[in-house]
Amino acid sequence: MLLFCMFCRFKINAAKMASSSPTSWAQEVIICDFCDKAVQQFCNNCQVNLCGDCINRHVNKHKSLTHDIVPFKNRKLHLVFPECEFHPNQRCEVHCQKCDVPVCIKCFLGQHKGHDAVEISDIVHRKKQQIKREMEEIESVIIPKFKNNDVEIERKNLKSGEDYDQLEKETEKLRKCWHQEVDTIFNNLRTLIKSMRDNDMEAKRAYKTKCKNLISEMIQTVRQNKDILKTNRVPDVINYKSKLKEYRDIPDDIDVKIPSLNAKTVQGGEFSVELEEYRATLTQESQSGPTNETMTKMLDKAKVIATISTHVKPTYCVACVGTGEVWVSGDNDIIKHFDIHGSLLDTVIFTGGGYPNDISVTRQGELIYSDSHSNTVKIVRNGKTETLVSLPNGWCPCGICCTRSGDILVTMSKTDYRRNKIVRYQDRAVKCEINEDEDGTPILSPGSYLNYVTENVNGDICVSDSNAGKVVVVDKTGKVRFRYDGSPAKRKEPLDPLHIVTDSKGHIIVADENNDCLHILDQNGQFLRSVDNCGLNKPSGLSLDKMGRLWVGLKGSKDLKVIQYMI
């Protein structure tokens, strides 16, 4: 008797919660839940709107249940409880606390006998109250906060633009105080500022887009919540998943500090300028040897930090990722990814036969490589290889380099090896070509050897002209600044330049296979020193990590050496 009274009370409470004013129904057209026809009948047991044609369809769909079909005006609204999985013609009106499942009266008297139970109508009532509160907070608090954020981002964008404009004006004023010969320094500063501005604005645009997308998502969530509040279907309410915590955690705003430009003049003839990590100094000193400042930044003797066995012989190319990882390629079709401890992290299969002529890494850490079989430069993204650049017919890619601005430098040869040139790509399109000097003479010598390329901090393009046994350095317009033939290093054999890199100080570092050493020059072509004490057996691949350490691939062994040469 007590159990029967408890279930009677469940139904009374459910009926009270589901009741609504008939006038609200009269104000809108009600259609059948199975088709688009006007409603005529109503199933009190299932709370379903029905037209005359769909009554049998509904009854046949739920044969195990009893159905109370009445004219629509005589409907009785109440909660629709879920069907019991184990007992036909029974609905679950209570929730077993111990087993955390809805149960019917037969379940309650059977395997769930003696368990604590809660009326499902009470659960629905509490859930709907929670949904209502969350909906109101999203609508009245969180969405307005995001909209205010959007306005603030726009204001900061305008202010950042003004600050960058002022920074450029200060740079131009300072330019007039320096000698005309150092214009390249300020061109580099302008490029650096533009890169900073682009990165800053891109980050703000991405943040703004993210906020707008979240606003749209929250508006959609509010609409869905309103639909849930109107429904009498228990599963729709029970299965509601809250997103409130996610919406409360507004992404942090992008607030980039504008860098300051520091400049000073020291009596006696020294001028210097600094912007973030970039520093340039002009001193009135003899150019017969390296400056004291340069030498104090270099170790007396370079030292090996790590030796990694790559099982790749010869090791032609290396490309660092961050501070402690590197991609390595040789004369087979596998490009390997190692960490500084020698652990193999990943592999990429070079398709098309042969092996890549050169490899590099983008600013985002994605591997790219030159493919002479398809005359393309390819990129590996999310484990998939796609074409980044397609070369013109009759040209084969050789060396590649990702610049600080995101451009791609490619040295390429005619398939008959009679001509070589340097091409800069921006967003997959040719930005400029460097082929001949001001006298019409080809900058790079003809021949089949690979010409590796890099870009210096001052915008110079440095190329190893292997056919001529020289390093060629041109400015960003293509004008030859100097050529280096290795003679200042006074080595036994002629210079055989392979890979070439530049560091944050503008030093140019060249791998010399013939003499088992590295040549280090300043950005004006002055020889500074050789690195020949680290057991470099035919050095070929060169790359610098973000800590300024050299990773050197050796053609004469399967080892890769990590070298520290700066203090």
Task: Please specify the SSE layout and strand pairing.
Blueprint: H1 2-18, H2 22-26, E1 41-43, E2 48-50, H3 55-61, E3 69-71, E4 94-96, E5 101-103, H4 105-109, E6 117-119, H5 120-175, H6 183-230, H7 234-238, H8 244-248, E7 261-266, E8 270-275, E9 278-283, H9 292-296, E10 298-309, E11 317-321, E12 325-329, E13 334-339, E14 344-349, E15 359-361, E16 367-371, E17 376-381, E18 384-390, E19 395-402, E20 408-414, E21 420-426, E22 429-434, E23 453-455, E24 461-465, E25 470-474, E26 480-484, E27 497-502, E28 508-512, E29 517-521, E30 527-531, E31 539-544, E32 550-554, E33 559-566
Antiparallel strand pairs: 1-2, 1-3, 4-5, 4-6, 7-8, 8-9, 10-33, 11-12, 12-13, 13-14, 15-16, 16-17, 17-18, 19-20, 20-21, 21-22, 23-24, 24-25, 25-26, 27-28, 28-29, 29-30, 31-32, 32-33
Helix/strand structural class: alpha+beta
Helix coverage percent of residues?
25-40%
Question: Which CATH C-level class of the largest domain is it?
Answer: Mainly Beta
Could you list the spans in which at least 5 consecutive residues all have pLDDT below 50? Answer: 1-26, 285-296
Distance between the termini: 89 Å
Instruction: State the CATH superfamily name of the largest domain.
Output: TolB, C-terminal domain
Strand content: 25-35%
The figure for the number of domains is: 3
The dominant shape is: elongated
How are strands sequenced across the largest beta sheet? 10-33-32-31
> What is the level-2 CATH architecture name of the largest domain?
6 Propeller
Say how many strands there are.
Answer: 33
CATH level 3 topology of the largest domain: Neuraminidase
- Describe the largest sheet: 4 strands, antiparallel
**Global mean pLDDT:** 83
- Rg over CA atoms, rounded to whole Å, is 37 Å
